[in-house]
Amino acid sequence: AIERTLSIIKPDAVAKNVIGQIYSRFEAAGLKVIAARMVHLSEQQAGQFYAVHKERPFFKDLVSFMTSGPVMIQALEGENAIARNRELMGATDPKKADKGTIRADFADSIDANAVHGSDAAETAAVEIAFFFAGMNVHSR
Ligand code: CMP
């Protein structure tokens, strides 16, 4: 089915100047960018976005990393978009990510892991709505 997913290119990958290379991978996999914005997240925004991880030991580091520089946020649309984007990203820990995935190629650590992608349809809808008003999402 045609799905939507929320993708974030994290501060490490933005700093490495690989936004375009990552967008090319989305496009080559049949995922369309239907909304996009660059944001330097506040602590409050990052904490709210990652609220499900609030009790995890890595939460503080996660918020501090995600606010360390601008991120590029996009909604992607396409066949099976949630799983397809997760395949493109590779495992959360770049040391465990398959060869040729975004994280294997561009990430340095489990914190600085280049990209975020929604993990399920329910979270995708919540995450897209967190960053994009409906009028700014351009289904095509
Ligand atoms: P992301 O998909 O953005 O969701 C939460 C982030 O927390 C994750 O990617 C990692 O960058 C970061 N993180 C740090 N340590 C861990 C961990 N032990 N397990 C899962 N995520 C972690």
Features:
single chain; 140 residues; alpha+beta; 7 helices; 4 strands; 39% helix; globular; binds adenosine-3',5'-cyclic-monophosphate
Summarize the structure.
The chain is 39% helix and 20% strand. With 140 residues, it is of the alpha+beta class.
Description:
The chain is of the alpha+beta class. Helix content is 39%, strand content 20%. Strands 2-3-1-4 form a 4-stranded antiparallel β-sheet. The longest helix has 11 residues, at 121-131. It is globular and about 40 Å long. It starts with a strand and ends in a 9-residue tail after the last helix. The model has no long low-confidence stretch (mean pLDDT 98).
Shape by Cα distribution: globular
Beta content comes to: 15-25%
* Count of helix runs: 7
- Biggest sheet character: 4 strands, antiparallel
Radius of gyration: 14 Å
Strand order of the largest sheet: 2-3-1-4
| Helix fraction bin | 25-40%
Terminal CA distance reads: 15 Å
Structural class: alpha+beta
- What bound compounds does this protein have? adenosine-3',5'-cyclic-monophosphate
How many DSSP E strands? 4
Uncertain runs? none
List the secondary-structure elements in sequence, H or E. Answer: EHHEHHEHHEH
- Average of per-residue pLDDT values: 98
Binding site for ATP: 10, 58, 86, 92, 103, 113
Domain Nucleoside diphosphate kinase-like: 2-139
Protein name: Nucleoside diphosphate kinase
GO molecular function: ATP binding; metal ion binding; nucleoside diphosphate kinase activity
